[in-house]
Design brief:
This protein has helices at 42-57, 64-73, 132-144, 162-167, 196-200, and strands at 9-10, 32-35, 78-83, 86-96, 115-123, 152-157, 171-175, 186-191, 209-210. By secondary structure, the protein is of the alpha+beta class. The strands form 2 sheets. The chain has a 7-stranded mixed sheet, with helices on both faces. Helix 1 packs across helix 2 (64-73). It is globular, with a radius of gyration of 18 Å. The two termini are 23 Å apart.
C-alpha cells in the first residue's frame, strides 16, 4: 500500500483536470467521503442493514429506534461511507465497560467504558464485493486510536463471518453469551494501541482526512458485509 499516514477519514475527491472559476458556484456532491453519522442518516442506515441481515439471519442487529438511539448518544463512534451523497457502507459502535459482552451491551452506551462495541458493519448490496467492508473497518479501527480512553474493540458475529473479521486483525475471545432466537455468536476483539502523541492531542483532532488511494492490508476477502 501507499504509506501516507494512518488517518482514517476520506477527503472529497476532486479531478485535477477541472478548474472552477472563483465566481462559479459548485453544486456537485463530493465523489466519496467518510464522516460520522447522525440521526438524519438513520433511515438510510436501517434500509441497508435490513436488506443485508434479514435474508441471512432473519433479524437486524439494530432496529430503527436503536439506530437513532446510538446516533444520538454516541455519533462519534459511527462512520459512514458516502458516494455522491449516498450512503454505501457504515459502522455503528458504542462504549462498553465489561470484559465480555452481555445482553445489556445490545442497547446500552457506557460513556466511561474503554471498550468499543461494534454493533454492525454493513455495505449496500450494489457496492458489495468491492472491498468496502474491510476498508471501512480498517479506517474505523485507525480512528479509534485517536480516542483517549479506548483500549479495544469487540464484536459478535456468526461463525461464517469469523474469517472476514480475522483478516481485519480481530482475534477470537470465545463463544458469546448473547443468543438471538436460535442464533449463536462468536465474540472477537481487536487491541487499540494508539500512540501517546495521538491520544494527548485527540481533542485537537476533528475527523482527519485521507485520500481514497490508500488501502488497508488483507482486503482479499471472500465475504463482504
Amino acid at each position: 500500500m501507499t504509506v501516507v499516514g494512518v488517518l482514517p477519514f476520506i477527503t472529497p475527491m476532486q479531478s485535477s483536470s477541472s478548474t472552477i472559476s472563483p465566481n462559479q458556484r459548485r453544486h456537485t456532491l463530493p465523489a466519496s467521503e467518510v464522516r460520522p453519522l447522525n440521526t438524519h442518516d438513520a433511515i438510510s442506515v436501517f434500509e441497508i442493514e435490513r436488506e443485508a441481515f434479514i435474508s441471512v439471519s432473519g433479524d437486524c442487529p439494530l432496529h430503527l429506534d436503536e439506530v437513532r438511539h446510538f446516533l444520538t448518544l454516541c455519533p462519534e463512534l459511527s462512520m459512514g461511507w458516502f458516494e455522491e451523497g449516498r450512503l454505501v457502507a457504515f459502522i455503528i459502535g458504542s462504549l462498553w465497560d465489561q470484559d465480555r459482552l452481555t445482553t445489556d451491551a445490545l442497547t446500552l452506551h457506557k460513556p466511561r467504558g474503554s471498550t468499543v462495541h461494534i454493533h454492525v458493519l454493513a455495505v449496500h448490496r450494489t457496492f458489495r464485493q468491492q472491498g468496502k467492508g474491510p476498508i471501512l473497518m480498517w479506517r474505523y479501527l485507525q480512528y479509534l486510536r485517536y480516542l483517549p480512553n479506548v483500549r479495544r474493540a469487540v464484536l459478535m458475529c456468526e461463525d461464517f463471518l469469523v474469517p472476514f473479521y480475522h483478516k481485519s486483525g480481530f482475534k477470537v475471545l470465545g463463544r458469546c453469551a448473547i443468543t438471538v432466537a436460535n442464533l449463536t455468536f462468536t465474540e472477537m476483539w481487536f487491541p487499540i494501541s494508539g500512540h501517546a502523541y495521538m491520544r494527548r492531542n485527540s481533542e485537537a483532532i476533528r475527523f482527519p482526512q485521507l485520500p481514497l488511494s490508500m488501502e488497508p492490508p488483507n482486503t482479499d476477502e471472500h465475504v463482504d458485509v
